[in-house]
Each structure stands twice: as structure tokens, then as C-alpha cells.
Records
---
Amino acid sequence: MSTQEFRTVNPSGNKRVLVTKELPGQRWIDILTAADCRVDISTSTDVLSVDEIKTVLRAHYDGAIGQLTEEWGNELFAALKAAGGRAYSNYAVGFNNIDIAAATQHGIAAGNTPGVLTETTAEMAVALTFATARRLGEAERFLRAGNYKGWLPTLFLGELLSGKTLGIIGAGRIGDAYARMMVEGHKMNLIYHDIYQNHALEDYIETYAEFLQQQGLAPVKCKKAGCVEELLEEADIVSIHTVLDDSTYHLIDAKHLLLMKENAILINTSRGPVIDEAALVTHCQQHPDFRAGLDVFENEPEMKAGLVDLNNVVIVPHIASATSWTRQGMATLAAANVAAILQDYPVWGKNDIAPFLEGDTPRAAPSILNAEDLDIPIYKHS
Ligand code: DGY
């Protein structure tokens, strides 16, 4: 990476922060500038390798903002430490690309950007669900190719979702938001799998069921699955919202796919390796009524052989969080993480990160994953 591939903002800043991609919006720049940081932004759109980032970190750096496409493990945290750094933030809520233990070992606070992706990502899961159920990609390709010769009773028959059973694997913030959108919008029953019980979601659906009954309509139901297998067998649509770690790697494999209904729909907006993608390709080839909607892939940007040829799969290039509001919000939170640590501020310690998005930025880091291990105190909320 040559120096031509950088632009520098606030060159006279006393601290120096590396940002490995251009980020949208202005607020994040203002936050770092107000914290007296010079900001070096890589203007390259290529995914930077560990070696390329290490080369840049030969200069002095106090902090860095990196991407989910970069492996922030021992090598990079050691390099950041040697460069004089003590703050890192992922420009992502997911952090499977960060070795938190390595960051902690090098005394580097490692942050992420929760709270601004929830609705946006859930909306993409909804979009993929409908695009898949109603065969939008296939139908559009057909039309654009000039194949439409007139209305037919049998043209592109898809699946009705209303009243069916939705299964979500992972009922954290995004899974919860998606479930509410689908259950309430389309009167679906819910089965969910998570290590934790989601009481708030269960209560919400129970209240909605009572409301439906008062209207003389059939109530919706909600239950927590005893195991993933139970969910896969019962659900008409399965949407994945887990983190990626050792326990979820290839959670959906050939055996699990066979448990699902012949005409089930599988949606993934979490991380590609949760699904054994080669097994999914084979399953979709052998079960034409089975459908999948994917935002993420096992070896991005590559896709397993055969995936792009499947008409029963809808694919988009990891854009579930791609709205201007969310991507600007992620930039704000990442910058606030780094700026706060470099100013010795505490961590926010609350789920509600809205105060960071407008007005005066709180004197706190919105989300530091290893705050406890590094003994970073929690902000005193009044
Ligand atoms: C994240 O932040 O983890 C998302 O995958 C980005 O879209």
C-alpha cells in the first residue's frame, strides 16, 4: 500500500489514528478531530492484508479503526502496540475477526458498534425472506431476458408466509427485531433457539396474540425450541442471527438441512460460516422447492461452486447493514470508541447508544468488548 492510497485529515493532531477504509458521514471525523487526532484514512477499496496493515503500523499510531474483512489477531495487535497504540475499534458489530484475548494481552481496548445495525439488518432479513419466498430474483431475470409472454396462472408460484411458522436461531437484538417484524406484520407463529430465554420477545408476542383474539382473529404462538433440530423440523422459514464462534461454525450442515421441510426457506444475514455452504449448494440442487436468501458467504467475497447458478437462492453482497443512517452510525461509534480510550474516558455500559449519534458526544466509549479485562471503569449515568 503506497502513501498515495491515504488521505489525512487534521494533519496537526497530536494523536494519530489509522482507519483502514473510507467511512461515510462527517460526525466520526469530527469526533476524532475534537480528540486532537490526526486521521490517516486508507482510500483503497481492496481488502488490506495483515502484512499491508503491519507495514503502515511501522509509523507511530495511537489507535486504529479496522474492518470485518481484516484479521485483527495477535500479529496486528502486537504491531499496533509496538506503534504506540492502545485503542482499536471494529467498524462492525460482529467481532469474529478480532482476537479479543490478544488485544487484551497487548493492553489494547477493542470496540465494536452495536445498536445501530439492529433494524437495518432485520429489514434486510425481511427483504430476503420475501424475495426468496416470492422468487423475485428469478422472476426479474426472466422478465429482463425478454421471456415474459403474458400472464399465466402458473407463472412463478411461490410461498405464502402469512400464518406460517418462523424459526429464528439467535434471539439477540437483530433476531428479536426480525421476529417482531415478521410475527406482527404477517401473523406468523414463532419458534426460537437461543441459549438465553428472551422474555421481552415472548411477552410482546403474547400481548399481540391477545390483541388478535380481541379482534376475533387467530392468535399467534411463540415457543423456545429445546434444540436446533426441533426448530429446523417445525419452521417454514429459518433465519440465522447468531454470532460466529466455534459453537456455531457449520451449525447448518447437510444433516441439518435434511431435517428442514422440502419447501422451507433459509435466510442468513449473520456470518457465512454458520452454514456449510457446499452442503447448501448440494441441498438446493437436489431440492428445487427449498429456497435460501443469503447476505453472507463462507469465504467472502468468493462463493462455493454452483451457488450463483441456483435459481432457488437469492444472493446479495453482505449489505444487510447498508443504509446511510446505519453506516454513518457505525462510523460514529467506532470513532467514539477510539477517541474515548485515547482520552481515558470510561465505557458507556448501556445498550442505548442513541446519545452518541447527535448532539454532544458523551465522554465515554460506547462499546469496548474487553473493558472488564482491562479494568476500564463504567460511566456514571446521572
Ligand atoms: C457487522 O457489523 O457485523 C455486519 O456484518 C456489517 O454489515
---
Amino acid sequence: MTTCVRMQRYGLTVLLMTALATTQAVPPDETRTSPAPSARTPILAIHGGAGVARGDLDAAGLAEARAALETALRAGHAKLQAGALALEAVKAAITVLEDAPSFNAGRGAVFTHDGRNELDAAVMDGASGRAGAVAGVTRVRNPILLADAVMTSSPHVMMVGEGAEAFAKTQDIALVDPAYFRTERRWQQLQRALEAERGAQPQAAAPSGDARPYFGTVGAVALDAGGRLAAGTSTGGMTNKRYGRVGDAPIIGAGTWADARCAVSGTGWGEYYIRAAAAHEICARVRLRGDDIRVAASDVIDREIPEAGGDGGAIALDADGRVAFPFNTPGMYRGWIGADGVPHVAVFREDDIALPDAR
Ligand code: ASP
């Protein structure tokens, strides 16, 4: 064999191997597979719901909510600092917020029209594309943990009501008496909503102040040291919701979404978030159009949702650690924690919150 023929064969082999490698390296849907982990500075962002306005809370109530946000940020950040996955940080932060009566999730959830607390939650792991959700549960102390169990220990993505609670028993998830979730403040909120409804205009202008139907849903998005993103959301839904109503929080793609490049948790008028597939829409713009996360998040939350008649906010995080906190209500409980381990928290629109340096 001449040197020239050998070189041609070698060249052909290299070409074939390169083509094969390229085919295998590009999966049909990049968001459903684990990206090659790359070193990142971990970051966690949380929200405690849009809808809060000055005057809704006294100084003590505000201090209590801010303290809970800081505790949640520290709990999630400790996980990230210890090398845990983004999803663990999301669960740790949300568990703290579910236990805090200041927020509309777990203890302190809003009441349905019938005077019950019906809870919804979801988690999504951006690296694997796996997700878990529960809706309409009434006895699960931390619905976010049950959503995680649905993801990790069942073949399903979503479970509702009594079935979800039967599954919780098999997973050693803590169940409580429904009275555990009750707070006087939420009960009075329902009474005001019922009174307003008994008035002349049940569907009239959007309610204001503490009578706003949503107020305090909680959520978290995290980026771990391996470059993986995750998102989670937990809520009691909207005050005075009718039996069986499920909002956007547990609907994957509506209130909660994470993929390899982007993670989102929403809070607001859920029906509009569902129709807009809001969380997925933000991440689709990042993935398919290369939009900056802050542009994508603001366009969907501050333009598309209000144009359709809804309102609310969201937190969004990309794989470079860029975070966005869009909202179009007077306030949104929000915060983040990154490299220096210092919690940054804000509540009202005019509150300053320094944004992290993205890497
Ligand atoms: N989005 C939630 C729902 O519609 C409410 C909220 O964010 O406070 O159920």
C-alpha cells in the first residue's frame, strides 16, 4: 500500500469517526439530557410571592417575613456549599418557607371558598429533565417533599388529592391534621373575599390590599457547582378558589420549569400563567432564541401576562448565574444568595436589591 493510499484511508476513518461523534453528541432534545458538568459558583434565588403591597403588613409582620426569607436562603445555600445538587437547595429553601406562616404555602396557606387549605407544589431538575408535582393535597406538611418523591420514587409526574396522600404514606412523608395549616390572617382574608363576593360585583375590578387573591406563594431556583439548574414552587393557590381548582404552580411549564440553561418559578394569577405556559416560555426564549434571561423573563411576565389580563412575578436563573426578578405588582418577596453567603432580600418595588455578578 502506498503512503498516499494509507493517508487517504486514514483521512476517511477520521472523517467517519468525527461524523459519528457529532451525531452522538447532539441529542434530539438537548434539554432532556445532562449537560457536561462545568464548574460554577453556586447561587440560589427565592420568592415568597407577588402581590404584597405596603400597608398589607405591620412592621412585625414584615420583619418576620424577611427573616424567613433569609433563613430559607441560608438553608439552601448551605446545601450548595456542601456540594449538594441544585434540587436539594431548592427543596431546603422551600421547606423553610412552607413552614413559615408568613407565606401562602404549607402553614399559612390561603383558604378555598369552602374554608379548606388545598396545596399544590412542583419540582423540576434541569439536568435530567425529570419533574414531580402534587395538587389539591390537604394533609401533607411539606408538599414540595411529596412532589420530589413523585419525581424520584414513582413512574409518574403528577399526583392529586387523596391518591397523592396515599402515596405520601408509602414514602414516610409527614402528614398533619388539616388544622395545622390554618392561620387567623388567612381566615380573615377569606372572610373579606366572601363579603366582597356577596356584594354587587363578584367579578369586578381586581382586589387590592390584603384582599388580593394571591399573596405569598413560594419558589426557588438554584445553580449548583456542577452547573446544574433546578426549580420548585409551592402554594395554597388563590384565596376563595373553588373546589378542585389547580393553579400554575404544580403544572410543569406553567409555574415551574428547569432545563439545562434556565430555571423559573412563577407567582401570580395562575390561570394566566397556565395559558401562557409562562415558565417554559421564558426558558424557550433563552434556549431557542438565545435571549438574555432578564429580557426573556421581563417580556413574558411584564408584557405578555398583563396584555392577556393577568399579573404577578417570577424568578429566573440561567446557567451562568444571571438572575431575574420581574414582577408587575406593588411588591414581591424575593432574595438571592451567592458566593459570599450573604442573603440579599427585598419586598417592595422600590426596595433595592443588588444583582449578582454572572460568570
Ligand atoms: N400562582 C398561584 C396560583 O395561581 C398563586 C400565587 O402565585 O400566589 O395558584
